[in-house]
């Protein structure tokens, strides 16, 4: 997912895409300004006529009184030492004291807002219902919304879940507008009559419930409505279908117009060229990455200058790994008050919700229930959460992920030193249950080759790279400007990486590891790989709708790489058994004859070689097979060595047989592309042993240019 380098002017004709560069630059400038002048409260609620806000600055010396937003909690029984520690930590971080207190896990968010309501003499609503028609992201950003009269009657008109500056202003105004009994006088205070409080989680759920149809539509259709050529919705265009069926007809008629041997030879050479191009690319990345010296960490940012970071995880039927996920996120070395964690679940997934709830409450994480809609895919769930993320940067994790504790800090430091057009970082992915059998072991080798050798090499060469499905770090303004993920593509990660390249936005390698669990059983592995292959085909279709425009935007060579990484990868996998068997027979024959055994295929092999064009066909098959083996084993060997996983070396000879299973998945994916294009195959988690997690040597990020 690098971005293509120099492109033509075609991209400039699209004002929406061209504007992304301005969005990225403005976001970078604002983050720099925030870093330089951070005065405390990043979580500022926009001004509104009914809820004016003034910034609260946490610059408290230890001898000064507690902030008003904390002091009243002593009446609720919260120890003063705990409140003082939160105030001091907020002073150190330049954060809102309440955010620091709640992020520490010592006080439940609901308990805080109930105590606040008692302190102000306002009612607390445990189940608010907001009027429909208000955009949920606007309501949540404002922190208040009108209540539905039919549910709450005429006495209560407005519900608020103030945070940050709005919370400080509310408490300050309350101290100035109390009657003789100590109750809050709303008249003249700037607050609306009929005001009630709730906590942010309940307010967010109510706002989303009132706005569910719009959220569901935007999650699925924001990209196809704004940039239809970048979405797989609708599938192949008419000219693509005509080209496909024309090519199939030409392929079928080829033996009728040419001798069978010649037709077969031409097809073999064509497939060989595609496979050879992929193989040479992989081998070239090995040469590039092998010459990189040990990388240097970017300048460190102290906690006060770290940006807010959103962590988004889409889950479905993941109750088995819910506790592990929450603990892994809690272990990340990043200020808790600057982490914005969102778990996105489906409305019918009550088990995952129940498993997450106690851990989310303890750590202050948010659970967002995605409104029902189609397609039922991970990217649609991520799009549903995107408007509600509060961070400057955003990272995607999977349910089974265990990121290295320093990953977010390194990502923030890397973004700080790279230009604003670098909008994405791809962290390294590695498998930690490789001892669970043949499939996890080969999967671990495959990941070591891809994420420790090939992808970093591609980025060093300035080539586009399809993103991995997790540990993608984004500048959130640019991600929103690109309309998030394509809900209609089952490999939304790969598609987004290439779309960013099309938009001439850049990606860098992030040398920090996220440990993942490989599927243990064949059924789960096959379903996952079939989805990947189907997604590569969808991505190829999407990015060939306007090939001239795409090639102009990316550059010709980079566009060829896009085709090779999508369509070429699937085609090579589908043709692999032919070259595997032919190449294996060609290589095994002289060995068998040397030991005095005439193999059963020798007569067939002799007839094939002596037939017209037979020698060409067998030579092409042998060369393709040898190139493929080299392009598979060399990156895998380098990756295993870089990972310091000597135990995986025994898996290398098994890879040629492992890729026969990949080929079977590719053929199934082709069939499913026509029968169930947007069907999502869920990968179960929690069955792996998750034992081996050696450290990755530290290295300096490589940027695609």
From TrEMBL:
The keyword DNA repair does not apply. Keywords: Glycosyltransferase, Membrane, Transferase, Transmembrane, Transmembrane helix. The keyword Membrane applies. InterPro entries: Glycosyltr_2/OpgH_subfam (IPR050321), Nucleotide-diphossugar_trans (IPR029044). The chain crosses the membrane at residues 262-281, 559-591, 611-641, 648-667. Residues 682-693 have a biased composition (Basic residues). GO terms for molecular function: glycosyltransferase activity. It is found in: Membrane. Pfam families: Glyco_tranf_2_3 (PF13641). It is a multi-pass membrane protein. SUPFAM superfamilies: Nucleotide-diphospho-sugar transferases. GO terms for cellular component: membrane. Residues 34-59, 681-705 are annotated as: Disordered. It comes from the Bacteria. This is Family 2 glycosyltransferase. It comes from Saliniramus fredricksonii. The lineage of its organism: Bacteria, Pseudomonadati, Pseudomonadota, Alphaproteobacteria, Hyphomicrobiales.
């Amino acid at each position: 997912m690098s971005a293509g380098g120099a492109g033509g002017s075609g991209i400039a004709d699209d004002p929406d895409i061209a504007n992304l560069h301005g969005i990225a630059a403005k976001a970078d400038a604002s983050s720099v300004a925030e870093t330089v002048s951070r005065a405390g409260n990043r979580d500022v609620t926009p001004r509104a006529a009914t809820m004016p806000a003034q910034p609260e600055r946490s610059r408290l010396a230890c001898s000064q009184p507690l902030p008003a937003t904390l002091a009243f909690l002593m009446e609720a029984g919260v120890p003063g030492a705990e409140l003082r520690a939160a105030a001091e930590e907020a002073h150190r971080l330049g954060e809102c004291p309440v955010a620091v207190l709640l992020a520490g896990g010592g006080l439940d968010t609901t308990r805080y807002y109930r105590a606040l309501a008692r302190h102000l003499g306002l009612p607390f609503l445990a189940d608010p219902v907001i009027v429909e028609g208000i955009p949920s992201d606007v309501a949540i950003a404002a922190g208040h919304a009108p209540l539905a009269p039919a549910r709450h009657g005429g006495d209560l008109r407005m519900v608020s879940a103030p945070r940050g500056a709005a919370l400080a202003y509310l408490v300050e105004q309350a101290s100035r507008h109390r009657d003789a009994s100590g109750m809050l006088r709303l008249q003249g205070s700037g607050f609306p009559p009929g005001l009630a409080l709730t906590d942010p989680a309940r307010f967010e759920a109510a706002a989303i419930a009132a706005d569910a149809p719009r959220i569901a539509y935007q999650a699925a259709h924001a990209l196809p409505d704004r940039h239809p050529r970048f979405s797989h919705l609708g599938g192949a265009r008419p000219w693509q279908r005509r080209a496909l069926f024309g090519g199939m007809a030409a392929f079928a008629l080829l033996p009728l117009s040419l001798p069978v041997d010649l037709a077969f030879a031409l097809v073999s050479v064509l497939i060989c060229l595609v496979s050879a191009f992929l193989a040479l690319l992989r081998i070239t990345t090995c040469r590039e990455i092998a010459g990189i010296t040990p990388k240097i960490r970017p300048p460190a940012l102290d906690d006060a200058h770290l940006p807010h970071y959103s962590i988004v995880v889409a889950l479905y039927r993941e109750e088995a790994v819910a506790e592990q996920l929450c603990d892994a996120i809690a272990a990340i070395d990043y200020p808790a008050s600057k982490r914005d964690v969102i778990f996105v679940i489906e409305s019918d997934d009550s088990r995952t919700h129940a498993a997450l709830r106690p851990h989310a409450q303890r750590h202050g994480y948010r659970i967002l229930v995605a409104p029902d809609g189609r397609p039922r895919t991970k990217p649609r769930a991520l799009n549903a959460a995107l408007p509600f993320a509060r961070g400057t940067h955003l990272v995607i994790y999977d349910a089974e992920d265990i990121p290295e504790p320093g990953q977010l800090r390194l990502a923030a430091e890397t973004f700080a030193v790279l230009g604003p057009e670098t909008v994405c970082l791809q962290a390294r992915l590695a498998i930690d249950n490789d001892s669970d059998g043949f499939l996890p072991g080969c999967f671990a080798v495959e990941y070591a080759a891809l994420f420790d050798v090939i992808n970093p090499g591609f980025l060093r060469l300035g080539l586009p790279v399809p993103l991995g499905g997790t540990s993608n770090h984004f500048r959130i303004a640019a991600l929103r400007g690109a309309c998030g993920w394509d809900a209609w593509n089952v490999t939304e990660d790969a598609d987004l990486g290439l779309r960013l390249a099309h938009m001439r936005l850049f990606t860098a390698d992030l040398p920090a590891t996220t440990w993942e669990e490989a599927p243990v059983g064949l059924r789960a592995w096959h379903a996952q790989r079939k989805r990947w292959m189907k997604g590569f085909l969808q991505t190829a279709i999407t990015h060939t709708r306007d090939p001239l425009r795409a090639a102009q935007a990316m550059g010709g060579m980079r566009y060829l790489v896009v085709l090779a990484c999508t369509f070429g990868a699937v085609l090579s996998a589908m043709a692999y058994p032919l070259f595997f068997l032919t190449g294996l027979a060609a290589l095994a024959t002289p060995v068998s004859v040397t030991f005095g055994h005439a193999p059963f295929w020798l007569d067939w092999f002799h007839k094939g070689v002596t037939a017209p064009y037979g020698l060409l066909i067998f030579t092409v098959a042998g060369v393709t097979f040898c190139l493929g083996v080299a392009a598979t084993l060399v990156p895998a060997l380098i990756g295993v060595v870089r990972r310091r996983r000597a135990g995986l070396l025994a898996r290398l000879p098994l890879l040629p047989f492992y890729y026969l299973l990949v080929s079977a998945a590719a053929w199934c994916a082709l069939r499913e592309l026509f029968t169930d294009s947007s069907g999502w195959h869920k990968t179960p988690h929690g069955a792996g042993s998750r034992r081996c997690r050696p450290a990755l040597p530290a290295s300096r990020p490589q940027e695609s240019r």
